[in-house]
Write a structure and sequence with these properties.
Structural class: mainly alpha
Shape: globular
Number of strands: 0
Strand content: under 5%
Radius of gyration: 24 Å
Helix content: over 70%
C-alpha cells in the first residue's frame, strides 16, 4: 500500500501542481511535437525517482508508470474534442491510477477480495449514497412537480443547466456526512448559508409562490438527507 501511495502522490504533484495551464494548451495544440509534453513526462520521472529514493529495485515500477503515462496522455491529446473534454479528463485520470495499481502489482502482487468490499456496511453506505443523491432528487421532483412556478421565470431560465440538480446532490451529500460524523452544527451552518444566498434573492424578487416552492424543496432535501444519515448511523456501525 505504501508503494501505491508514493506513486499516487507523485502523480498528483506532476499532473496538478507542477503542470501550468499554458503547458496543457501547448500540448493540446502541438500534440506529439509539444515540448511541454516531454517536460511534463520529465517532471513525473523526477518525482517518481525522488519518491522511490532512486532505488534500482523499483525499475519494474518506474518504467511501466512513465511509459503508460506518456501513452495515455498522447492518446488523450489525439482523441479528445471540445465536446468530450470533460469525459476524457476523468478517463485520463482513471487510466493513470489503474496503471499505478498495475505497476504496484507487478512489483508486489496483491489480492483484491470482493467479499471484503461487498460487506453489509459498504453495501448500506452505497445504498444510502444513491438514495441521498439520485433517489431523493426524483422523490423531491415528484412531490413538488404539481406546482412548478419556475416556468416562465427569466432568472431561472438564465441559470446554469442542471445547476439545481447538482447543488442538491452536493447539499445532501454534505448533510449525510455531517450526520454520520455526528457534526449536527454543520447541518445548521449549511441551512443558514443557503438561506442567506438563496432566500435573500427570492425575498427581494417578491415572488411568494417561487419562495414557497424553493422552501418546500429545501426542507424535503434536508429532511431526506438527515433521515438517510440517521439510518446509516444506526445500522451501519
Amino acid at each position: 500500500m505504501i508503494l501505491f501511495l508514493k506513486l499516487l502522490v507523485a502523480h498528483l504533484l506532476g499532473d496538478f501542481v507542477f503542470q501550468p495551464k499554458n503547458w496543457v494548451k501547448d500540448k493540446e495544440k502541438n500534440k506529439i511535437k509539444s515540448t511541454k509534453l516531454y517536460a511534463h513526462i520529465g517532471i513525473h520521472a523526477v518525482l517518481l525517482l525522488l519518491f522511490l529514493q532512486f532505488n534500482p529495485i523499483y525499475w519494474n515500477v518506474f518504467l511501466p508508470v512513465i511509459i503508460s503515462h506518456y501513452l495515455v496522455d498522447l492518446g488523450k491529446l489525439y482523441l479528445q474534442k471540445k465536446k468530450n473534454k470533460r469525459l476524457f479528463f476523468f478517463l485520463d485520470q482513471i487510466l493513470h491510477i489503474f496503471f499505478l495499481g498495475l505497476a504496484t502489482y507487478i512489483y508486489s502482487p496483491f489480492k483484491v477480495s470482493i467479499d471484503a468490499i461487498l460487506t453489509q456496511q459498504n453495501l448500506l453506505l452505497f445504498a444510502c449514497l444513491i438514495f441521498a443523491t439520485y433517489t431523493s432528487s426524483i422523490i423531491i421532483n415528484t412531490l413538488i412537480s404539481k406546482w412548478n412556478p419556475e416556468k416562465g421565470n427569466k432568472s431561472i431560465e438564465q441559470s446554469l443547466a442542471n445547476a439545481g440538480k447538482y447543488i442538491g446532490f452536493l447539499e445532501r451529500l454534505l448533510i449525510f456526512i455531517f450526520i454520520i460524523i455526528n457534526q449536527w452544527a454543520g447541518v445548521g451552518f449549511l441551512l443558514a448559508a443557503k438561506s442567506i444566498f438563496r432566500f435573500g434573492d427570492l425575498t427581494a424578487s417578491k415572488d411568494r409562490k417561487l419562495t414557497e416552492y424553493v422552501l418546500i424543496g429545501t426542507l424535503l432535501s434536508f429532511g431526506l438527507a438527515i433521515l438517510t444519515g440517521l439510518v446509516y448511523s444506526y445500522y451501519g456501525r
